[in-house]
Amino acid sequence: MGSGSALDRQRIRKILIRSTNWIGDAVMTTPAMGAVRAAFPRSELVVLANPIVSELFSPHPYCDRVVIYDKKGIHHGAKGFLQLASELRREHFDLAILFQNAIEAAILAFLSGIPQRAGYRTDGRGFLLTHGIPVRQTGCARHHTAYYVWMLNRLGISGGDGKLKLISSEGEKRWAREKLGDGRWIAINPGAAYGSAKRWIPERFAAVGDIVAKEFNARILLTGGPAERELGQDIESAMHTQPLNLIGKTSVREMMALLSRCALMVTNDSGPMHVAAAFSVPIVALFGPTDSTTTSPFSVNSRVVRKPVECAPCLKRECPTDHRCMDSIEVGDVLEAVRSLLHTSKSENGTIS
């Protein structure tokens, strides 16, 4: 079928949504998932995701259940891949919507016997798709949320409220309340799973944490994944106030519940940044090597802090030079953004020096 050709809606009762492999990207697919739910309110929607991303959607209002694709476990290697295809074939899906751009996603949908397979014609996979959308038509400066929604629009799928969406259960909310207690909490997320080039300087995060804690009578929560434990320890050691350091100590769903209770988040471009945006938490986002036009927080209640340098955005995981895009961001730049979001009228006398 040609690109953008209409789906055979009469035959769609069960839909497989192949999610992306990164938390932030997966959160940015939720407006598109809302459109699928609105367009097919009586169909069963099943998300296929890796173990980490699967937590975002367990539960979620835009899907009925999640199938975990565990490449490091039961689905490891070619044998595991074929086993997953066999499992999916027994499900008898009518449509696969591939948010993941890799050819692997299209091969899996094909081997699973899914008759309608829709996605962008990336990674040389166009011949495997029954409804392939040319990615070049999206425009180069679309935010990722629009990138996924636009693909669905080309398929005749529209609807939903166009907003990011995540939820926490009542039990998770209760756990977060007990963990944090009363008072104002401000989250600092100093890591970035994609690579070190996206990370701001730990000592400056510590300085921001100290000043913000004092100025706004707040407690500081440090968030991040297991690989960032050492980074969290460095920041905790550099701070004069005592943060609650939960870096590497929470599940994805626990992290979601904690962030939903925060008054503000200071963060690098990262998955937790998008999680906070989905819970309408005000965000100060620090950008260097990545493109803020495509991956900034999808929220009106956010501030992007970046400095124009000739080599950014380079989109590299590790900086090959002197990290100038992040090094040029000063403590005062971040504090200015924090204050603008928290609507403070306090003087800046001496707080940046």
TrEMBL record:
Highest taxon, organism lineage: Bacteria
SUPFAM superfamilies named in the record: UDP-Glycosyltransferase/glycogen phosphorylase
Signal sequence coordinates: none
Native source species: Desulforhabdus amnigena
Family that this chain belongs to: Belongs to the glycosyltransferase 9 family.
Name this protein carries in UniProt: lipopolysaccharide heptosyltransferase II
Listed NCBIfam families: heptsyl_trn_II (TIGR02195)
GO BP terms in the entry: lipopolysaccharide core region biosynthetic process
Keyword Flavoprotein assigned: no
InterPro entries: Glyco_trans_9, LPS_LOS_Heptosyltrfase, RfaF
Catalytic activity: an L-alpha-D-Hep-(1->5)-[alpha-Kdo-(2->4)]-alpha-Kdo-(2->6)-lipid A + ADP-L-glycero-beta-D-manno-heptose = an L-alpha-D-Hep-(1->3)-L-alpha-D-Hep-(1->5)-[alpha-Kdo-(2->4)]-alpha-Kdo-(2->6)-lipid A + ADP + H(+)
EC id: 2.4.99.24
Keywords: Glycosyltransferase, Transferase
GO molecular function: ADP-heptose-lipopolysaccharide heptosyltransferase activity
GO CC field: cytosol
